[in-house]
Model the fold of this input.
Amino acid sequence: MSGILLLIPPLTQLNTPYPATAYLTGYLRQEAIECRQGDLGLDLVLELFQPKGLSDLFDAIELGAFELPHALSNMLRNRASYESTISAVIGFLQNKNYTLAYRIAARGYLPEAERFKTMRDSELFFGSNGIQDKARFMCSLYLEDLADIIQATVGPHFGIARYGERLARTAVSFDPIREALEAPLNFVDQVLIRVASRYFENDPPALLGFTVPFPGNLYGALKVGQWVKKNYPETRIVFGGGYANTELRELSDTGVFDYVDYITLDDGEIPISALFRHVTNPTANPLLKRTYVKQADSVRLINTLLGSEVPQGKLPAPDYEGLRIRDYLSMFDIPNPMHRLWNDGRWNKMTIAHGCYWKKCSFCDVSLDYIGRFEQSPAHLLADRMETLINQTGETGFHFVDEAAPPLAMRDLALEILRRGLQVTWWTNIRFEKTFTPDLCKLLAASGCVAVTGGLEVASPRLLDLMEKGITIEQVARVCKGFNEAGILVHCYLMYGFPTQTAQETVDSLEIVRQLFEEKLVQSAFWHQFAMTVHSPVGLNPEKYKVIRTGPVFKGFANNDLYHEDPTGADHEKYSDGLKKALYNYMHGKAFDFPLQKFFAFPVPKPLTHPKLVSKFFKRLVRDEIDWIGYRIMWIHTSVQRGTKQNSEPELLFVLPSRICRISMPAAAADFILEHAHRFDLLSPEPLEFVQTLQRLGERVGLRPEEVVSQDWYIRLRKEVLFVLKG
Ligand code: SF4
Done:
């Protein structure tokens, strides 16, 4: 028995590993602690979705003599077809069988059940050239159909990206979870135990650690914990991660300790290394950090190990060694460009910073460490980690899973990526704040940024203020425009049902969303209904936000989601369908002229928002401010030469990474640019300061700086070649 085994319990995403074990593995190996890792979600799915797995599954369903709806019993009749195609489908989703797409997309190859009904609406999305996408989408539907029949029969807890999620949602008491855990093993549980047991065959670990990020991972972790306790009683078991950090901060029910020995809170590096030392060398008074244990029939939080967290600058790169990177599945289950990024492709996951630099939004868990403790990593270190990960995984895609990546840290990272010439693709979550100028957006795009996600929430000035979101609708529109012009996709998180939100504010907010899509400023969005949590300012102080907490009654286990009443607001729940219908249409570029009240099955007020509000924001031409002190003017990966045009004004020819750009300008301006060409370069050791450069350029062409910035040739230079960036 030796070392630590870190497992991701079923199920998170299937396209890429959840990063927590890789982070911890990197740290533990740096501390010379022996550590292995695995993803039980991927293991479970690959064990189920193979010919023998499906054959056993269908046998078990037949044996169970379940009463099935028509569509599912047809699947059973068609079992031979599923069993013969499953290996090909999995191989295709693992990007190992490219040409199969043609056969799949032609239809008639894969068995089709209930989920394929959505194909009718989606055919248009793929067109005649989207063969690979269409095939990937169809394979995802095929797996969803299989998940449906499993859930309806021998694996009621199973879902493609979750396991037993319903059990752990608002689980104020541990009793229902215990009841499910003590029930006889169902078919999927048996497969889960089989794949988990393989990690124990040769060398059981001294400490088994589960990361439980979401409610949909709790049941799987405890089920395996139960088996380990019975079969390998000397192995100690711990779990930590997002679920414990948010939901178990008031844990008092000892029941969960029949399945695990310890639960840690917040960042895992110090707690798990301290725990390993204790487990391998037990003492009566252990030095532990933020670790729950069961002692004398009660739960104790031990925090005897003093000292701070590992500084971000001291953390090594995540270590993915041991995870089967090549075996993940690139799913594509909703034809939406942003959703696709989440589920398709193997992204290396990292963070630019710990926590959120804003930490004010009143609906957010700002009182918790993972949001409230902000600490940034320097750009050079992030780039070092990126290089390490590229070497390790062979993947050059990065998803920075920040709560809200700081714009200036993104700028520094982009510059570092460009300086090192890293060929990477990346995306992250942001706040729509005005620091994202069009220049910064272009810089981010030049470094490989392809998408951003961010919260617009309720597009209402009153509610944005009440939420302390710190953004305005105009600001969001401008930032989105900057990203779009730079070719970066934008996804917005939208919210409805914030305390005191009226019906009028709901339709007004929808009208803004309509305009953002009509103006092509946003490509994707999703509505979430406001959820009141114990750790958010609203949950901590409901009176201030005029809501009434109505439950649930805490019974010793999870405490996070709160039931609430909103006496002055609308009946929020009933707007859900209409909002989603409208959004679906806008995302597909449709129904911009359709009166939006008609998306609701009941009377709603007409929007009071001006129908051209968003486009009016852009009527004013934005020019460079001539007093931008502390800014640099530069170009990126560009060279310049004289053009061959012979008429009145000379022309300069700029060789940009993706095209050649010709700009005519006065001879004096062209000479100035050619003389300073080496200093315009991003990598120049003598960068050009913006205000001074503008002044000198003006002197050469005989114009004042405010006149220079309104010249057509200057405006084109700024639009196509030059960047002005702070710092
Ligand atoms: S909602 Fe986002 S921006 Fe607001 S505090 Fe939370 S993490 Fe930060």
Notes: The chain has a mean pLDDT of 94. The pocket of iron/sulfur cluster is lined by residues 356, 358-361, 364, 366, 371, 403-404, 431, 455 (CB under 6 Å).
